[in-house]
């Protein structure tokens, strides 16, 4: 279960507000996970727990899934505020 301390924080990294950065974010996260799985070789239980948590987050469309953007979910109201986005 030692390897879960390296996998679970990946689920807490927020998705960028700018839709143009979603592809870059998903590619970075995908390559990070692939390199982690190839280099560290986590145990089967840790990998299954992580994949189950990832599946549940993406299936529920909470908005933090880095694999794809749910069409039903909308951007937060602060995403349309030019004073925040323009900085």
TrEMBL record:
Pfam families: BC10. It comes from the Eukaryota. Its main location: membrane. InterPro entries: BCALP. GO terms for cellular component: membrane. The chain crosses the membrane at residues 20-38, 45-69. It is found in: Membrane. Keywords: Membrane, Transmembrane, Transmembrane helix. Belongs to the BLCAP family. Acts as a tumor suppressor; induces growth arrest at G(1)/S checkpoint and apoptosis via RB1-dependent and p53/TP53- and NF-kappa-B-independent mechanisms. Modulates expression of genes involved in the regulation of proliferation, cell cycle and apoptosis. This is Bladder cancer-associated protein.
């Amino acid at each position: 279960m030692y390897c879960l301390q390296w996998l679970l924080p990946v689920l807490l990294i927020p998705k960028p507000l700018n839709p143009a950065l979603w592809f870059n974010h998903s590619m970075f996260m995908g390559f990070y996970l692939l390199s982690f799985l190839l280099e560290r070789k986590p145990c089967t239980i840790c990998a299954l727990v992580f994949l189950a948590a990832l599946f549940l987050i993406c299936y529920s469309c909470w908005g933090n899934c880095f694999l794809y953007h749910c069409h039903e979910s909308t951007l937060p109201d602060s995403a349309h505020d030019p004073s925040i986005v323009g900085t």
